[in-house]
Amino acid sequence: MISESEALDRILAGITPLPAESIPPVLAAGRFSAEEIHSPIALPALDQSSMDGYAVRSADTPGALRLVGEQPAGVARNLTVGRGETVRIFTGAPMPAGADAVVMQEDVSADGGIARIGEAIPVGEFVRRSGSDVCRGQWLLGIGEAITSARIGLLCAAGIQELKSHCRARIGIISSGNELRQPGESLAPGEIFESNVPMLSAQLASVATCIGTAHSPDDDLVLAERIRALSAADALILSAGVSVGEYDPVHEALRRLGAEVDFWRVAVKPGKPFLFARLGTQWIFGLPGNPVSSFVTAHLFVRPALARLSGASAASAAPARIRVPLATSIDNPGPRPHYVRAAIKNGLACPAALQQSHGLSSLAASELLLRVPADARLQEGDLVDALPITF
To answer: Can you give the CATH number for the domain in which 106 is found?
Structure first.
C-alpha cells in the first residue's frame, strides 16, 4: 500500500498530454493550452471614457463649459477639447485630444450649448487609460493552463482567432456487480440501482469526454470483453470489483488482457482499493464500488490524471486545496488520512453527520472534502486542508 502523494506522483509522472490542434477560442472551453499566447494589441487600445458624460480638462472645473461636439463609441472623430470647452462622450468612446477627465452626465447641467459643472474633477476621473488592462506583448495564457470562459473573453478581446489546445481525453466507464440494475428496472431483494457510472461521468466531464459506458456482472471474462469494446478510449474507469475477493473480477480481467498494474492499494480513507494500470496505450483506473469511495478516489487521482492527459501542467492538474477553520472537532484515530465530507456555513467547515462510504446524501450536500491526517485530533477553530468538490 502506498501513500496518496506517491500514488498521484506516479500517475502524473507516467502520463503525457494528448496531441494538440488549432481551434477558435470559442471552441476551447474546458481544454488546456498547448502554447504560450501574448497579446498583439493593448487593451484598451486608446484612452477611453468609462461613463456616459462630458470629456473635460480638469483645470477648467468647476465652471460653465462650451459644448463643441459629441463623441460616440466605435468611431474616432478626432475631436479636441480646448480651454473652456467640453465634448459630450459615451461609455467606451475614445477620449478627445486635450481632455483628461470625464464628468458623469448626472453631475452636469447642460442647456443651450453650455455644460455647467459644479465641482472640481480630478485628472483621470472615469478615464480608461490605453494598456491599463493589457499591454501590447503581455502574456495572456501559458502552456498547460486551463482555457476558462474568462480567458476566452480575454483572448477574443485581444483579437486571437485561433489557439493550439490539447485534445480532450476520451474515457469509458464500466461498472461491475451482479446486484446492479438500471433506474426504471425492477429491483429484487438485495439489488440496487446503478449510480456510480452517471456520477463519475458528470464528475469528470470538465476534463474528459465520455465516449461509452458499460456494465459487467462479476465475471472476469465478460469484464474483459467490455474493456475490449471500449479500446478507443484514452482511459477507462472501472467501478467496483477492484479488491481481491471471490466476486471481484478486475484483477483477473486485466491479467487476461495483458495489462500492467502499477499499484492497487492507496493509504486513504475512503478508497483504499484503488488501481492504476496500463493496457497498451490505454490508462486504466479501478475505483471502489462504494459510491463515496468512488467519488473521493476519482477526485484525488482520476480527475488530475485526465486533466494531465488533456494537457494540464502537472502542477495545475493536482486537486485544488484551501485552508478552512472547523466548526467542530474531528477525530481520525486510524492509520490513513480521512477525507471528510463537509459544507461551509458562516465561513466554517461543518462535517456531515454521516461519513460512511455509502452515504450519497451527505456527499450531495457537501462542498468540500476535509483532509484529516492519520491519528489526528482536530479542535473547533483549527485550520484544516480542504478540497473544493463543487465545480
So the answer is: 2.170.190.11
Question: Which amino acid appears at position 228 of this protein?
Answer: R
How many domains does the chain contain in total? Answer: 4
3-class secondary-structure state, position 164: strand
> At which residue does the C-alpha cell 482567432 appear?
161
Alpha-helix runs per DSSP H in the chain: 4-14, 149-157, 196-203, 220-229, 250-257, 291-297, 303-309, 314-317, 360-364
Residues 107-134: tens digit of each pLDDT: 999 999 999 999 999 999 999 999 999 9
Q: How far apart are CA 295 and CA 277, in angstroms?
A: 19
Length of the chain: 391
Residues 26 and 179: their CA atoms lie apart, in Å, by 43
| Residue whose C-alpha cell is 499566447 | 37
Give the CATH number for residue 354: 2.40.340.10
pLDDT in tens, 291-348: 999 999 999 999 999 999 999 998 889 999 999 999 999 999 989 999 999 999 999 9
Asked if 303 and 382 sit in the same domain, the reply is no
Can you tell me the distance from the alpha carbon of 99 to that of 96, in angstroms, rounded to the nearest whole number? 6
Last residue in a domain, options 115, 145, 166 = 166
CA 2 to chain centroid:
28
Residue 251: half-sphere exposure toward Cβ, Cα within 13 Å: 14
User: C-alpha cell of 188?
Assistant: 429484487
* Amino acid residing at 303: R
